[in-house]
Hints:
Number of strands: 6
Structural class: alpha+beta
Largest sheet: 6 strands, antiparallel
Strand content: 35-45%
CATH architecture: Roll
CATH superfamily: Hotdog Thioesterase
Number of domains: 1
Strand order of the largest sheet: 1-2-4-5-6-3
Radius of gyration: 14 Å
Number of helices: 2
CATH topology: Thiol Ester Dehydrase, Chain A
Helix content: 10-25%
Order of helices and strands: HEEHEEEE
Amino acid sequence: MSLAEIARVTEVGFAGNIGLQFTEATGDRVRANWVVEPTIHQSHGIVHGGAYCTAVETLASIGASIFFGAHGRVVGVNNNTDFLQASTDGTHFGEATPLHRGRSQQLWQVLIRNNQHTLIARGQVRLQNLTR
């Protein structure tokens, strides 16, 4: 799957509201960045936790899908995201890497950093491998 194909798939629907720009996507690592806009803020003017959850799930799902490839598809079955530091603006950078890739499930970790390279959120997603 090329970066252009990934962009087309992710710019529609729920994840499209964040504005993810993918810079690397393989079965071993997925990287993306996005500019924080007020449209993803919560009522106190900071990034809504759901935006981080969405980014975490999207990056992990893409990496897991590329890894599983022609064997079938993957679906997320658990997303656990920790919000470590509030953020209001700037560019965020996400990187997803696998912790475990088995026959039936995968576990991916995603780290999200700000412009100053400070870790602001971290998550992990467990995905089920569904064979064709």
